[in-house]
């Protein structure tokens, strides 16, 4: 084995790595053909590094959130719906805030008008007098 590995250009660490990978595959319950097909598909994809990162993120999410892979798609859909709902709430709150801001501006303008009129001894409470002067 050592002679063959030396002849092929890889050392014992490479063999140990291959054995570990085989053990992982067996632990997953997948067969060598499935893994080989998966790796071939990754290699042929336009962005293999990104695919590997996504697969790693999926595995981490499943492990950290204790979500079985079979339920992960539903979990992601639920989170997307929640995100959509929150974005809609934010838009509604923004619209309310904008209308309140307009109300505040109108109140400010009203107060300025009232102050301006009071400088000339006029009041909005006596509109007939105000109109006769205008």
Describe the structure.
The structure is a single chain. With 134 residues, the protein is an all-alpha fold. Helices cover 84% and strands 0% of the residues. The protein has six helices and no strands. The longest helix is centred in the last third of the chain and has 51 residues, at 69-119. The radius of gyration is 35 Å and the shape is rod-shaped.
Map the helices and strands.
Layout: H1 2-8, H2 12-28, H3 32-44, H4 48-64, H5 69-119, H6 127-133
- Report the oligomer: single chain
Strand content: under 5%
Count the helices. How many? 6
Mean pLDDT: 84
Radius of gyration: 35 Å
Structural class: mainly alpha
Pick out its properties.
single chain; 134 residues; mainly alpha; 6 helices; 0% strand
Summarize this, please?
The chain has 134 residues and is mostly helical.
């Amino acid at each position: 084995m050592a002679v063959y590995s030396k002849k092929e250009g890889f050392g014992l660490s490479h063999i140990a790595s291959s054995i570990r990978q085989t053990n992982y595959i067996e632990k997953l319950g997948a067969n060598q053909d499935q893994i080989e097909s998966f790796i071939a598909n990754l290699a042929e994809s336009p962005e293999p590094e990104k695919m590997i990162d996504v697969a790693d993120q999926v595995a981490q999410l499943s492990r950290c959130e204790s979500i079985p892979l079979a339920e992960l798609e539903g979990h992601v859909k639920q989170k997307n719906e929640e995100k959509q709902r929150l974005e809609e709430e934010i838009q509604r709150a923004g619209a309310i805030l904008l209308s309140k801001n307009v109300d505040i501006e109108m109140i400010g303008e009203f107060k300025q008008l009232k102050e301006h009129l009071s400088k000339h001894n006029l009041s909005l409470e006596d509109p007939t007098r105000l109109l006769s002067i205008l």
